[in-house]
Design a protein that fits this description.
alpha/beta; globular; 335 residues; Rossmann fold; single chain; 9% strand; 60% helix
Length: 335
Amino acid sequence: MADKYLDGKEFMKVINEAVTDLRLVLLFGTEEFYIDNCIKALKRSYLAPGSEDMDLNVIPQDFKAGFEDLEGYIQMPPWMSRKRVVICRSQALYSSEFGDREESVLKSIPESCLVVFAPEKAEKNRKITKFIAKNGVAAEINLFPEEELIKIIRDSLGRNKITIDHDVAASLVSRCESKMRQISSEIEKMRLYCAGSGKDSITFDDLENMCPPDLNASIFTITDCFGTGKCDSALKTLNSLLLRKEPIQRLRATLITHLKRLVIAKDTGDKGKLASELKCSPYYAANLIKQSSRFTIDRLADLLDKAVKSESDVRHGIMDERTSLETLIVRASFK
Protein backbone atom coordinates (compact mmCIF):
# COMPACT_ATOMS: atom_id res chain seq x y z
CA MET A 1 0.00 0.00 0.00
CA ALA A 2 1.02 3.65 -0.29
CA ASP A 3 3.27 5.16 2.35
CA LYS A 4 0.52 6.83 4.40
CA TYR A 5 -1.19 6.65 7.79
CA LEU A 6 -4.86 5.75 8.00
CA ASP A 7 -7.16 6.96 10.77
CA GLY A 8 -9.37 4.60 12.77
CA LYS A 9 -12.37 4.77 10.46
CA GLU A 10 -10.25 4.24 7.36
CA PHE A 11 -8.60 1.21 8.94
CA MET A 12 -11.94 -0.32 9.93
CA LYS A 13 -13.04 0.17 6.32
CA VAL A 14 -9.99 -1.78 5.13
CA ILE A 15 -10.97 -4.66 7.43
CA ASN A 16 -14.66 -4.64 6.56
CA GLU A 17 -14.17 -4.40 2.80
CA ALA A 18 -11.51 -7.15 2.89
CA VAL A 19 -10.03 -5.97 -0.41
CA THR A 20 -6.45 -5.85 0.91
CA ASP A 21 -4.29 -8.89 1.61
CA LEU A 22 -3.21 -7.83 5.09
CA ARG A 23 0.08 -9.31 6.24
CA LEU A 24 1.69 -6.46 8.18
CA VAL A 25 -0.09 -3.81 10.29
CA LEU A 26 0.95 -1.08 12.73
CA LEU A 27 -1.63 0.43 15.09
CA PHE A 28 -0.62 3.34 17.31
CA GLY A 29 -1.99 6.53 18.87
CA THR A 30 -3.74 7.83 21.96
CA GLU A 31 -7.17 6.18 21.52
CA GLU A 32 -6.33 2.81 23.10
CA PHE A 33 -9.93 1.60 23.27
CA TYR A 34 -10.46 2.01 19.53
CA ILE A 35 -7.11 0.33 18.83
CA ASP A 36 -8.24 -2.64 20.97
CA ASN A 37 -11.48 -2.76 18.95
CA CYS A 38 -9.49 -2.78 15.71
CA ILE A 39 -7.51 -5.76 16.96
CA LYS A 40 -10.74 -7.54 17.90
CA ALA A 41 -12.08 -6.85 14.40
CA LEU A 42 -8.93 -8.32 12.84
CA LYS A 43 -9.27 -11.46 14.96
CA ARG A 44 -12.93 -11.84 13.97
CA SER A 45 -12.00 -11.42 10.32
CA TYR A 46 -9.06 -13.84 10.13
CA LEU A 47 -9.47 -16.39 12.94
CA ALA A 48 -11.94 -19.25 12.79
CA PRO A 49 -14.33 -19.52 15.78
CA GLY A 50 -12.68 -21.32 18.67
CA SER A 51 -9.22 -21.27 17.05
CA GLU A 52 -7.46 -18.67 19.21
CA ASP A 53 -5.56 -21.23 21.29
CA MET A 54 -3.96 -22.62 18.12
CA ASP A 55 -3.87 -19.76 15.59
CA LEU A 56 -3.28 -16.65 17.73
CA ASN A 57 0.03 -15.58 19.25
CA VAL A 58 0.37 -12.50 21.49
CA ILE A 59 3.75 -11.00 22.41
CA PRO A 60 2.95 -8.97 25.59
CA GLN A 61 3.91 -5.34 26.05
CA ASP A 62 6.49 -5.99 28.77
CA PHE A 63 8.03 -9.07 27.08
CA LYS A 64 11.65 -8.54 25.98
CA ALA A 65 11.15 -10.26 22.64
CA GLY A 66 13.42 -10.15 19.61
CA PHE A 67 12.82 -10.62 15.91
CA GLU A 68 13.94 -14.24 16.21
CA ASP A 69 10.87 -14.85 18.42
CA LEU A 70 8.63 -13.16 15.87
CA GLU A 71 10.18 -15.15 13.04
CA GLY A 72 9.34 -18.38 14.85
CA TYR A 73 5.65 -17.45 14.99
CA ILE A 74 5.61 -16.28 11.36
CA GLN A 75 6.87 -19.64 10.13
CA MET A 76 4.09 -21.59 11.90
CA PRO A 77 1.14 -22.36 9.60
CA PRO A 78 -2.42 -21.82 10.88
CA TRP A 79 -4.34 -24.90 12.00
CA MET A 80 -7.98 -23.92 11.60
CA SER A 81 -7.96 -20.35 10.26
CA ARG A 82 -7.05 -18.76 6.95
CA LYS A 83 -4.27 -16.84 8.68
CA ARG A 84 -2.16 -17.13 11.80
CA VAL A 85 -2.50 -13.82 13.67
CA VAL A 86 0.49 -12.52 15.64
CA ILE A 87 -0.16 -9.50 17.90
CA CYS A 88 3.10 -7.75 18.87
CA ARG A 89 2.46 -5.45 21.81
CA SER A 90 6.07 -5.64 22.98
CA GLN A 91 7.57 -2.16 23.15
CA ALA A 92 11.05 -3.71 23.21
CA LEU A 93 10.42 -5.55 19.95
CA TYR A 94 9.08 -2.46 18.18
CA SER A 95 11.90 -0.24 19.56
CA SER A 96 14.74 -2.67 18.84
CA GLU A 97 17.31 -2.08 16.11
CA PHE A 98 15.75 -2.41 12.67
CA GLY A 99 18.31 -3.38 10.05
CA ASP A 100 18.53 -5.69 7.06
CA ARG A 101 17.98 -8.82 9.15
CA GLU A 102 14.82 -7.48 10.78
CA GLU A 103 13.55 -6.12 7.48
CA SER A 104 13.96 -9.54 5.87
CA VAL A 105 11.86 -11.11 8.63
CA LEU A 106 8.94 -8.77 7.89
CA LYS A 107 9.37 -9.21 4.14
CA SER A 108 9.11 -12.98 4.59
CA ILE A 109 5.61 -12.90 6.17
CA PRO A 110 3.62 -15.47 4.15
CA GLU A 111 0.09 -15.08 2.85
CA SER A 112 -1.04 -17.36 5.67
CA CYS A 113 0.07 -14.94 8.43
CA LEU A 114 -0.88 -11.51 9.72
CA VAL A 115 1.52 -9.61 12.01
CA VAL A 116 0.06 -6.68 13.95
CA PHE A 117 2.35 -4.30 15.82
CA ALA A 118 0.49 -2.43 18.58
CA PRO A 119 3.12 -0.87 20.88
CA GLU A 120 2.27 1.59 23.62
CA LYS A 121 4.30 4.26 21.84
CA ALA A 122 5.32 4.58 18.20
CA GLU A 123 7.29 7.20 16.32
CA LYS A 124 6.84 8.06 12.65
CA ASN A 125 10.55 8.73 12.17
CA ARG A 126 11.61 5.19 13.17
CA LYS A 127 12.73 2.91 10.36
CA ILE A 128 10.29 0.15 11.31
CA THR A 129 7.35 2.60 11.21
CA LYS A 130 8.33 3.85 7.77
CA PHE A 131 8.80 0.28 6.54
CA ILE A 132 5.35 -0.82 7.69
CA ALA A 133 3.69 2.32 6.30
CA LYS A 134 5.28 1.59 2.91
CA ASN A 135 4.92 -2.19 2.79
CA GLY A 136 1.84 -2.82 4.93
CA VAL A 137 -0.88 -0.79 6.62
CA ALA A 138 -0.18 1.80 9.34
CA ALA A 139 -2.98 3.49 11.25
CA GLU A 140 -2.59 6.39 13.67
CA ILE A 141 -5.65 6.38 15.91
CA ASN A 142 -5.87 9.38 18.24
CA LEU A 143 -8.64 10.81 20.43
CA PHE A 144 -11.70 11.65 18.37
CA PRO A 145 -12.91 15.26 17.90
CA GLU A 146 -15.58 16.38 20.37
CA GLU A 147 -18.40 16.60 17.80
CA GLU A 148 -17.69 13.09 16.58
CA LEU A 149 -17.82 11.73 20.12
CA ILE A 150 -21.07 13.60 20.77
CA LYS A 151 -22.58 11.95 17.69
CA ILE A 152 -21.36 8.52 18.85
CA ILE A 153 -22.97 9.05 22.27
CA ARG A 154 -26.30 10.25 20.86
CA ASP A 155 -26.44 7.53 18.20
CA SER A 156 -25.53 4.80 20.67
CA LEU A 157 -28.19 5.82 23.19
CA GLY A 158 -30.64 6.46 20.35
CA ARG A 159 -30.50 2.79 19.39
CA ASN A 160 -32.15 2.14 22.76
CA LYS A 161 -34.60 5.01 22.17
CA ILE A 162 -32.83 7.14 24.78
CA THR A 163 -32.34 10.84 24.02
CA ILE A 164 -29.56 13.12 25.25
CA ASP A 165 -29.15 16.80 24.36
CA HIS A 166 -26.04 17.99 22.54
CA ASP A 167 -24.74 20.00 25.54
CA VAL A 168 -25.31 17.10 27.94
CA ALA A 169 -23.38 14.78 25.63
CA ALA A 170 -20.60 17.39 25.39
CA SER A 171 -20.38 17.43 29.19
CA LEU A 172 -20.02 13.64 29.18
CA VAL A 173 -17.16 13.90 26.67
CA SER A 174 -15.39 16.39 28.95
CA ARG A 175 -15.97 14.27 32.06
CA CYS A 176 -14.40 11.30 30.28
CA GLU A 177 -11.53 13.41 28.85
CA SER A 178 -12.58 12.35 25.32
CA LYS A 179 -11.52 8.76 25.99
CA MET A 180 -13.77 6.21 24.34
CA ARG A 181 -13.19 3.50 26.97
CA GLN A 182 -14.66 5.69 29.70
CA ILE A 183 -17.39 7.01 27.41
CA SER A 184 -18.41 3.46 26.48
CA SER A 185 -18.59 2.51 30.16
CA GLU A 186 -20.74 5.55 31.00
CA ILE A 187 -23.08 4.86 28.06
CA GLU A 188 -23.66 1.32 29.32
CA LYS A 189 -24.35 2.72 32.80
CA MET A 190 -26.94 5.09 31.30
CA ARG A 191 -28.64 2.26 29.42
CA LEU A 192 -29.00 0.25 32.63
CA TYR A 193 -30.20 3.34 34.52
CA CYS A 194 -32.90 4.08 31.95
CA ALA A 195 -33.95 0.42 31.78
CA GLY A 196 -34.36 0.32 35.55
CA SER A 197 -36.00 3.72 36.01
CA GLY A 198 -38.19 3.75 32.90
CA LYS A 199 -36.65 7.06 31.75
CA ASP A 200 -36.08 7.73 28.07
CA SER A 201 -33.76 10.74 28.33
CA ILE A 202 -30.51 11.73 30.06
CA THR A 203 -30.21 15.19 31.66
CA PHE A 204 -27.44 17.19 33.32
CA ASP A 205 -28.84 16.12 36.69
CA ASP A 206 -28.48 12.48 35.64
CA LEU A 207 -24.84 13.11 34.73
CA GLU A 208 -24.21 14.72 38.11
CA ASN A 209 -25.71 11.70 39.88
CA MET A 210 -24.17 8.94 37.78
CA CYS A 211 -20.97 10.11 36.12
CA PRO A 212 -17.56 11.37 37.25
CA PRO A 213 -17.40 15.12 37.93
CA ASP A 214 -16.35 17.33 35.03
CA LEU A 215 -12.94 17.95 36.55
CA ASN A 216 -11.43 19.59 33.46
CA ALA A 217 -14.30 22.09 33.23
CA SER A 218 -14.01 22.80 36.97
CA ILE A 219 -10.27 23.45 36.70
CA PHE A 220 -10.91 25.79 33.76
CA THR A 221 -13.50 27.63 35.89
CA ILE A 222 -11.05 27.99 38.77
CA THR A 223 -8.24 29.18 36.49
CA ASP A 224 -10.55 31.66 34.77
CA CYS A 225 -10.72 33.53 38.09
CA PHE A 226 -6.94 33.96 38.29
CA GLY A 227 -5.89 37.57 37.88
CA THR A 228 -9.46 38.90 38.07
CA GLY A 229 -9.42 39.92 41.71
CA LYS A 230 -12.48 37.70 42.26
CA CYS A 231 -11.95 34.38 43.99
CA ASP A 232 -15.55 33.66 45.12
CA SER A 233 -16.45 31.60 42.05
CA ALA A 234 -13.20 29.62 42.20
CA LEU A 235 -13.64 28.80 45.90
CA LYS A 236 -17.28 27.85 45.28
CA THR A 237 -16.20 25.46 42.52
CA LEU A 238 -13.53 23.96 44.78
CA ASN A 239 -16.03 23.48 47.59
CA SER A 240 -18.47 21.78 45.22
CA LEU A 241 -15.78 19.31 44.15
CA LEU A 242 -14.85 18.56 47.75
CA LEU A 243 -18.50 17.99 48.68
CA ARG A 244 -18.59 15.35 45.94
CA LYS A 245 -15.68 13.59 47.68
CA GLU A 246 -13.16 14.46 44.98
CA PRO A 247 -9.71 13.78 46.55
CA ILE A 248 -8.03 17.09 47.26
CA GLN A 249 -4.64 15.63 46.29
CA ARG A 250 -6.05 14.87 42.83
CA LEU A 251 -7.44 18.42 42.56
CA ARG A 252 -4.06 19.93 43.37
CA ALA A 253 -2.24 17.63 40.93
CA THR A 254 -4.78 18.40 38.19
CA LEU A 255 -4.45 22.16 38.76
CA ILE A 256 -0.64 21.98 38.57
CA THR A 257 -0.86 19.87 35.39
CA HIS A 258 -3.32 22.38 33.93
CA LEU A 259 -0.97 25.29 34.64
CA LYS A 260 1.91 23.40 32.99
CA ARG A 261 -0.30 22.82 29.95
CA LEU A 262 -1.19 26.53 29.83
CA VAL A 263 2.53 27.36 29.71
CA ILE A 264 2.98 24.92 26.81
CA ALA A 265 -0.14 26.29 25.09
CA LYS A 266 1.16 29.85 25.41
CA ASP A 267 4.47 28.82 23.92
CA THR A 268 2.96 26.68 21.13
CA GLY A 269 -0.01 28.78 20.09
CA ASP A 270 -1.19 26.17 17.59
CA LYS A 271 -4.15 23.87 18.30
CA GLY A 272 -2.93 20.98 16.15
CA LYS A 273 0.63 20.99 17.49
CA LEU A 274 -0.59 21.29 21.07
CA ALA A 275 -3.05 18.39 20.69
CA SER A 276 -0.25 16.25 19.26
CA GLU A 277 2.24 17.20 21.98
CA LEU A 278 -0.17 16.72 24.89
CA LYS A 279 -1.98 13.77 23.24
CA CYS A 280 -5.31 15.46 23.92
CA SER A 281 -8.37 16.29 21.81
CA PRO A 282 -8.23 19.34 19.47
CA TYR A 283 -11.21 20.80 21.35
CA TYR A 284 -9.36 20.66 24.68
CA ALA A 285 -6.21 22.09 23.04
CA ALA A 286 -8.22 25.00 21.61
CA ASN A 287 -9.63 25.79 25.06
CA LEU A 288 -6.13 25.76 26.56
CA ILE A 289 -4.86 28.19 23.93
CA LYS A 290 -7.88 30.45 24.43
CA GLN A 291 -7.38 30.55 28.21
CA SER A 292 -3.60 31.01 27.96
CA SER A 293 -4.13 34.10 25.79
CA ARG A 294 -5.37 35.95 28.89
CA PHE A 295 -1.97 35.66 30.56
CA THR A 296 1.61 36.63 29.78
CA ILE A 297 4.15 33.79 29.84
CA ASP A 298 5.72 35.39 32.95
CA ARG A 299 2.36 35.42 34.74
CA LEU A 300 1.77 31.75 33.93
CA ALA A 301 5.27 30.86 35.15
CA ASP A 302 4.55 32.75 38.38
CA LEU A 303 1.23 30.92 38.89
CA LEU A 304 2.93 27.56 38.33
CA ASP A 305 5.67 28.51 40.79
CA LYS A 306 3.04 29.43 43.41
CA ALA A 307 1.26 26.10 42.86
CA VAL A 308 4.47 24.08 43.25
CA LYS A 309 5.40 26.03 46.41
CA SER A 310 1.91 25.40 47.79
CA GLU A 311 2.42 21.67 47.27
CA SER A 312 5.77 21.89 49.04
CA ASP A 313 4.13 23.66 52.03
CA VAL A 314 1.78 20.69 52.44
CA ARG A 315 4.61 18.13 52.23
CA HIS A 316 6.58 19.98 54.91
CA GLY A 317 3.59 20.38 57.23
CA ILE A 318 3.41 24.18 56.95
CA MET A 319 -0.26 24.06 55.87
CA ASP A 320 -2.97 21.43 55.62
CA GLU A 321 -4.20 20.35 52.18
CA ARG A 322 -7.40 22.38 52.01
CA THR A 323 -6.04 25.61 53.51
CA SER A 324 -3.05 25.44 51.19
CA LEU A 325 -5.20 25.02 48.08
CA GLU A 326 -7.64 27.75 49.10
CA THR A 327 -4.74 30.12 49.85
CA LEU A 328 -3.24 29.39 46.44
CA ILE A 329 -6.54 30.21 44.71
CA VAL A 330 -6.96 33.48 46.64
CA ARG A 331 -3.38 34.60 45.93
CA ALA A 332 -3.62 33.64 42.26
CA SER A 333 -6.84 35.65 41.92
CA PHE A 334 -5.04 38.91 42.73
CA LYS A 335 -4.29 41.12 39.73
